[in-house]
Amino acid sequence: MKVGGKDYRTVWMSGSSVNFIEQNKLPFSFEIYEARTHADTCMAIKTMIVRGAGAIGASAGYGMAQAFLESDENMKYVDEAKRCLEATRPTAQNLFYAANRVYNSAAGSKKPARTALEEAQRIADEDAENCMRIGENGNMLIEDGFRIETHCNAGWLAFVDFGSALSPVYVAHRSGKNVFVYADETRPRSQGARLTAWELRNEGVPHAIIPDNAGAHCMSRGMVDMMIVGADRIAANGDTANKIGTYERAICAARFGVPFYVAAPTSTFDLDCETGDAIPIEERSEDEVLYQTGPDEEGVMRKVLVCSPGSGALNPAFDVTPAELITGIITEKGIIKPSEEAVRSLFS
Ligand code: MRU
Fold this sequence. Notes:
By secondary structure, this protein is an alpha/beta fold. It has eleven helices and 18 strands. The site of 5-S-methyl-1-O-phosphono-5-thio-D-ribulose has 17 residues, from β11.
């Protein structure tokens, strides 16, 4: 996607460095963070410089490639690096998918570092291509004039390019359809208000940020034609882990008869999780709930307390939407019903 007229991917490798669009700084400033070692890459994933399913996956793949480059073929070093990467974001299936793919392809190879680099690049390229196909498949569901609600950020910043939930929106918009997006604010990290809104503005897609608790009202007034969300991990039966608050939105959508779609590449499915109960849910720091960060009137970034001093907070980062509340899952291979049979057929 373009930023200021220049093509960018969310994450890319140059030499032995991994480069990221620094997502903690958006939408207030556009900066690139350079991770020179796999340890820097681990830190970038953990501190959410890079975030979102596919972007985390590609970063983990590149991080494994960095580890192979640094290792001098010492597999103990590589194994330790893999553990470090896998400990960063427990819910993100793409992270495990990419780390394992790079590790397995390079570990037995004659030129492990080169093989690792090639495999990591392949994963990143596939992510971008698959997201483009998700856009084309999802666009078939979008009618001219549709008002689409989304939760969190599942646009191009959450992948290598194009995105999952927003990819159909971009294809529809570019093909001349009138589309309008309601971007849920997505407390506590405000991915919707900060990242989704920034992306939509960048692409010229008409939109409005809505508070997370305005969704039922909007649906009850017939203001939403469909909902599309991303996914961090999808179980074999179609249960879907996504950003906290997604489950509530799915319940509302069912109440008001609004079609509720999940958009995700097949790399986000985890067939080892039979149901959503087996998906680990990341708990994040209570500070994310208690404090907010943004520029003051002079443009200086400030972290301010926004809750009653002395109160604690609970901060589960994801929830699991049961398959029965999902209308369909938009993948690069087509749109499927969220059933075990349909999910397994994607991989047969
Ligand atoms: O915790 P984050 O910011 O990494 O959250 C990831 C997400 O962007 C969402 O859960 C998203 O909706 C699915 S990933 C495209």
